[in-house]
Structure formats: structure tokens, C-alpha cells
Amino acid sequence: MLGYFIVGIALLLALLIGGNALVNARPEKIVRAFRIAALISLGIATVFFAITGRMQIASGLVFLALFFIRNKPLFSNRNTSSGQTSDVQTDWLHATLDHDTGDMDALILKGDFEGKNLSHLSRAELQNLYADLSRDQQSSSIVETYIARNFPDEDPSDEHSEETRHSNPAGMSMAEAYEILELKPDATISDIKSAHRRLIKKFHPDHDGSAYMAAKINLAKDILTKT
Questions:
Q1: Burial class, 109, CB count within 10 angstroms (exposed 0-12 / middle 13-18 / buried 19+)
Q2: Pick the residue with more confidence: 11 or 108?
Q3: pLDDT tens readout for residues 36-95
Q4: Residue 172 burial (C-beta neighbours within 10 Å; 0-12, 13-18, 19+)
Q5: CA-to-CA dists, residue 87 to 13, 46, 106, 141, angstroms
Q6: Are 34 and 21 in contact (CB under 8 A)?
Q7: CB burial class (10 A; 0-12, 13-18, 19+) of residue 50?
């Protein structure tokens, strides 16, 4: 009930602010009012997630709000430069946002790409990193935001990008399929099905798992059982 109440307040505020702007009938004020309403709604959602103990989601929303403000400024001031940056650190990433330019980047703290920045990775490498972060919602949100900005025509979870199609028509090699199902190449069909049942139960979205990993697990099983 508390969640519905908070969402209702956010919608009411958005309607009041937007309605006031429409009465004024000035296009620049309408755009600005809706931006403010969106940020108010985002702020209320952040507070809600924070007080309900979901701090990772709340932190991610704060970072996205900062990104939104810099790219869609509410108050334009083209003659000054603050020289300020914002930092967000997760288990996997140390992300920075330049307040003047809106540019964002992140240093990778562990994994195969440890020590590199997102800006130094290719599109295929970013996709591999995104897959590694499937169980870290805050880190994956940062990478998803980065990909959305730098590759606007591509989906960060798209397994059918040009780079992955070369392995097989499904975009996944057999070696990767075995690795995802935590199996060795000599695994039997029975082993594959057992591993699939175990992992899909663990990662299924209905059990607070990852839709992306569930899709990868299903694809891995299909590849190995149809060869």
C-alpha cells in the first residue's frame, strides 16, 4: 500500500506541474516543467527504494538522475563551467560523470577487463561485460546506460549483434554454452537437462533472478541439445 501511495503522490505532482505549464502555453516552460516533474517522480522512487532497504536500486537511480540532469539541464548556464564530477562505486565499477559535458565513463575493478575503462572496450567486449554483471543490478545499470548513450541503435542485451553472429546462428558458441551450464564438453544430454533445470531455477526472474541470464541458460541448453 505504501508503494501505491508514493506512486500516486508522484503522479499527482507531475500532473499539477505539467498542467500549470500548459496553462502558461509557453513551449520552453512546458518542456522544463515536465523535466522537473520527471525528476520529482524519480526522487520519490529513490526515497521509496531507500526506505525499503533496496539501496542498490536507489543508488542507481541517483546516478541516472545526475546523468539526466546533465544531458537535459533544467537551468541552462552556458557561460560558466563548474569543473565538477560525480562518482559512484559498485563492486565492479568506479563510474564518473562530468557535470559540464555530461560524459560518463567507468573504471572496471575486477573480472576479465580489470583496470580498463568502459571507453576502451569494443562493443563486443561491453556486451561480454554486461553479461558478467547480470547479478549486479547497480553495475549492469551503469553499463546499460553507457551502451545506450554510445551505441543508441543497439540493445545492450542483444545477443544477435554483428560481433556474436559469427560463432553460430544463435550468437553463442558451444564452448560458451558449456561454460554457462557449468558443464564439460563430454556432458551427456541428461547432464545438460539437469544443469539447465538447476540453473534456471536459480536465475529465473520470478525468483528475483536475471531475465538476461535465464535467456542465456535457455539458449545454451537449446544449442547443446540440438547438436
A1: middle
A2: 108
A3: 666 676 667 666 666 776 666 656 666 666 665 555 444 444 444 455 677 888 899 998
A4: buried
A5: 29, 17, 9, 15
A6: yes
A7: middle
Beta bridge partner(s), residue 79: none
Task: State the CATH class of domain 167-227.
Answer: mainly alpha
Where does CATH 1.10.287.110 sit in the chain? 167-227
CB under 8 Å, gap of 24 or more: what pairs does 141-144 form?
Answer: 141/60, 141/63, 141/64, 142/60, 142/63, 142/88, 142/90, 142/93, 142/95, 142/106, 143/93, 143/106, 143/118
Residue 213 near residue 135 (C-beta atoms within 8 A): yes
> Please, what is the end-to-end C-alpha distance for the chain in angstroms?
50
